[in-house]
Amino acid sequence: MNLRKYAVFCALSLALTLSHSAQAASKQSNPESRFFVKSQSPLWRNSFNARHVFPEGFSANLSDWQLRVARAFNIDVQPLGQLFILEEAAPQERALPDASIPWGVGAMYDLPSLATRPVGGKGVSVAVVDTGVSQHPDLDRRVSLCKDFTVARGATNVCIDTNGHGTHVAGVIAADGGEDGLGIFGVAPEASLAIYKACSAEGECWVDDVAAAIRAGVDDGAQIVVVSAGADSAHSVLANAVKYALDKGVLVIAAAGNDGPYAGSVDTPARLSGVLAVGALDTQGGTPEWSSRGSNSRSLLGVLEDGDIAFAAPGVRVQGPWLSGVYAELSGTSVAAPHVAGVAAKVWNASVKNPAYYVRDVLEKIARDQGVEGEDNATGLGTPVISQ
């Protein structure tokens, strides 16, 4: 080993040793100081206690001292932000549902009444990236796996929901009424749910946790990924995770956001290229003022571009499963997105060459116009409505 290499080796060893010592002694690592480290070095991953490893680097909670060490070695370190679950108002809990088929689920079906129970989604796995899932009789048979990404490196088979949001989203997609059939039904009650906890009890979702969850959903075989959280902007690690899903033939659906009524107010990841952004409808088929608007009026007619609203679905006073086996009424684009995910699960066709492309085409063809005639910023192409 020549003198220069030896000096670098000694400096690196000393920095790593001091980094560990400083972290252990002062415990300065702050959960509110999440960073993305653009390095593939195992030395830095171990030294900085990497949370999630990505092709382009890793995430970690870094102390001020660790940041100084990274910068001393010219390592590219970028701060990571958060997404937030997109509910618009506090949930209204109740012991029993008003009806076995909530109005939102019924609106996605071409049915003369709500007397016919929905079916469909068998053999399709939907990854729900949210706050986890609570044990609930209407979901117990639908959950195939769960993973927690709010802890370092993920924890398999532990994804307890202490917020309720993820449980509600899962229920809109695939609640099956329970063994007695007396509970609530989702849009596709035969679908399988893969639950990925990426958001805290407060509804805060670190970008790297969401990105890691999306990648895990793809690797675990999900055909559809739904994200009911968003932010005004996000790190490239999230965009890369979405691209990874799309490149693998996975359909990605996301809540548009609750930042309306302004044009171009769709949140990330819903505004990312290839993602189907879903806005909200109220019980009368109108658009709530708070539902984010797309940029459809500035894009090619009939062509969904970045930042456009793709579809609109029920997002006001929607009932679904909640914590402790009860039910809740929730509003927001958070609950609009899983309605479309449920329809996608119902029409999924694994026998075609490109199922995700096929399903997108089907959703567009069965979309019923809403609001302003034709494609618009609030409702996109309309609401995908299916026959039983």
Q: In total, how many beta strands?
A: 20
Oligomeric state, counting identical vs distinct chains: single chain
What structural class do helix, strand and pairing data support? alpha/beta
Which architecture of the largest domain would the CATH scheme give at its second level?
Answer: 3-Layer(aba) Sandwich
Strand portion: 15-25%
Helix content: 25-40%
- CATH T-level topology of the largest domain: Rossmann fold
Topology, element by element:
Elements: H1 3-26, E1 34-37, H2 42-47, E2 52-54, E3 57-61, H3 64-72, E4 77-79, E5 82-85, E6 92-94, H4 103-107, E7 125-130, E8 143-148, E9 155-156, H5 165-174, E10 192-197, E11 204-206, H6 207-219, E12 224-227, E13 229-230, H7 236-247, E14 251-255, E15 276-281, E16 311-314, E17 318-321, E18 327-330, H8 333-347, H9 355-366, E19 367-368, E20 383-384
Parallel strand pairs: 7-10, 7-12, 8-10, 12-14, 14-15, 15-16
Antiparallel strand pairs: 1-3, 1-4, 2-3, 5-11, 5-13, 6-18, 8-9, 17-18, 19-20
Helix pairs in contact: 5-8, 6-7
